[in-house]
Amino acid sequence: MSESGQGPQTGNLPTETTSFVGREAELRAVAAAVSDARLVTLTGVGGVGKTRLARRAGAGLRDRFPDGVWLVELAQLHEPALMPLALYEALRLADQSTRPAIEVVADWLADKKLLLILDCCEHLAADCADFVRTLLAAAPGVHVLATSRRPLAAAGEQAIVVPPLPVAALGPGPSDAALLFTERAGVPGEYGSAVAEICAHLEGIPLAIELAAARLPEMDLDTLRQRLHDRYEALDSPSPGRWTGESDPRHQTLRTAIGWSHELCTAQERLLWARLSVFADGFEQEAAELVCAGGPLGSGQIGGLLSALVDKSLLRSTRTRRGPRYSMLDTVREYGEEWLRNLGEEQRLLERHRDYYRWLARTGGREWAGPDQVAWYERCTAEHANLRAALECCLADPDPRDSLEMAGSLWFFWFCCGFQREGRHYVNRALAKSPGPGPEPERFWALWTLGVVAFTQGDLETTGRQVNLCNPLADRLGDPAAVDAARYLEGTWLTLSGRSAQALGLVARAAGSPGCGGGSPAVKLLLLATVTFAHLRLGDFDRAAAAAGTLREECERHGEQWMRSFAFYLLAGAALGNGDPASAVRHARDGLAIKWRLHDILGAALSIDILTSAMDDPEQTARLLGIADVLWRSVGGAQLGNLDLVAARRACERRVRDAIGDLAYDAAFRKGLEADINEGIAYALATPEGGTPS
């Protein structure tokens, strides 16, 4: 890591799961182009291997970019405003300010030396050009490697056309196209004329070759060669109105290869292929069964059909802790989308997709404060693109009910999982569809969600407006959970506004009542946290410690982790206030361990800050301050501008400088700043005896 700091990782390129064949000349050309130009765009027809080449080239360029090589996938984004948010997600940022998103991204990148790979830009080419122009102007150490079926037409862009693989051998041994075919087909060494003719028919397009190789379990090489020969001999001119914008005739070759794969599928496989095209990204078998079953497709058949499509290279499968997760290449998805429209099922399947992810959001919101919290975090982050697509489908409906409900149901995703900006974006859009009285329960939870997201961004003015809207609406609804949720929102707003005594008068009685939370464990835990926080801000450390202990016990009873980590943070603050730094260190480390497990960067930064205030080893403290600064830069600003937190941080630095001097402080601080962030967290978690907390 450079002294300028960086995010929690040094890149996010996925591990290659299949062999990379050929492309030595192209890799050299990309490496040279990235040295000469700050924007390099790989262009070419769909299926030619632009994405794979960009990823391999990026991996080879890691040594040039100390702040990492970062892949940003844009294929499933259809709204330019989401591009900065996609970049947040890829870089693992957690900015929680209310500044314009593009400004925050540009500022964070300003002192970085890294490579961004923007993948699949063609459908947003003009917007991508503007986006890249802004980033490169603000960040002189940043380079961009883009993939697109056409150039971005941006100033200073260097475009490289990615050709198909050579079908003729350039020396002894097989051509690159033949080698790819035999490796994917599992027939190494069979480089005869049949393979050469197959690759020639397919014009060396890698995706077409992989699809053809997947047919070998059903037919021998000669039969495959003859069928391809017959098909391409009969090929007419490209079909008008299909896959518009593809002027390269080789695109028709790919389309023909995909079409042939389509014809060789069973009727049920073809129907499932078309229906699966509604998924914006990967999906699980459960989702496929609930969205795609119906008519001739029984839900019990879906698993076998998914396996068959994987065998034909039309789907890809990866293993996760929840089981296999499937994905479809963009060009294969486009073909399925076209067939779905021709079948007249597109709208129905989009609505089924929307309804499944609405159910997922509702269930996640209801079960978040429970034993499966980490699993819900992982599941929702994996389904992020599908959740976005479902929200867009809801927002397209003139009736605001679904969009309000889904945006509010995802409160836990926006509030707890680091997606505050995106949550605010969607909640505001949903509320704009219902500016006056409307579906009141859905409207309440959307307003409440906006309020909690706003205060995490330091926007207390917006939170105050939501308090004034939520309180009367909760009273009208008569829902105990809504009433207590409104009290939590107002109590937190009052505490953050410096009116902690008033907040206690509002929330303490509700938190102590037998029906606290109105049947919602999440609301109950949030109320208890506000009581604790108010006591802490008032300097009543004994009551804060008692309330934090109650909060921790309730979290453990429910199996909840995110709020439990906050309870440890509050316990650390109370212990520090009571003059017990050893207990404060222990609690801060316990909270940090949970925060990092949940990828809560803001929570981790807060935990390390309070840890540094309690440490008695000045050199270790200075190093931890450097580690904390790395996290704060990811979050978007030192201590989020909170005056109390900034004052505590400055006081800690003064104490350490006075103890060991400026030279020793700077050396230890730099060591923390330059450490790999995972090593830094491990260092922060180490006990004085060298172990780690339970």
Task: Tell me what you see in this structure.
The structure is a single chain. Among the domains are: 24-161, P-loop containing nucleotide triphosphate hydrolases (Rossmann fold), CATH 3.40.50; 167-234 and 251-264; 278-344, Winged helix-like DNA-binding domain superfamily/Winged helix DNA-binding domain (Arc Repressor Mutant, subunit A, Orthogonal Bundle); 580-694, no CATH class. The protein has 694 residues and is mainly α. The protein is built from 33 helices and 8 strands. The strands form 2 sheets. A 5-stranded parallel β-sheet has the order 2-3-4-1-5, with helices on both faces. The two termini are 29 Å apart.
List the helices and strands and how they pair.
Layout: H1 24-36, E1 39-43, H2 50-60, E2 69-73, H3 83-91, H4 101-109, E3 114-119, H5 125-138, E4 142-148, E5 157-161, H6 176-185, H7 193-201, H8 206-213, H9 221-233, H10 250-264, H11 267-276, E6 283-284, H12 285-292, H13 302-311, E7 316-320, E8 323-327, H14 330-343, H15 346-367, H16 373-382, H17 384-396, H18 401-409, H19 411-416, H20 420-432, H21 440-456, H22 460-477, H23 480-496, H24 500-512, H25 521-537, H26 541-558, H27 562-577, H28 581-597, H29 601-614, H30 618-635, H31 643-660, H32 662-673, H33 677-685
Parallel strand pairs: 1-4, 1-5, 2-3, 3-4
Antiparallel strand pairs: 6-8, 7-8
Helix pairs in contact: 1-2, 4-5, 6-8, 7-9, 8-10, 11-13, 11-14, 12-15, 15-17, 15-18, 17-18, 18-20, 18-21, 20-21, 21-22, 21-23, 22-23, 23-24, 23-25, 24-25, 25-26, 25-27, 26-27, 27-28, 27-29, 28-29, 29-30, 30-31, 30-32, 30-33, 31-32
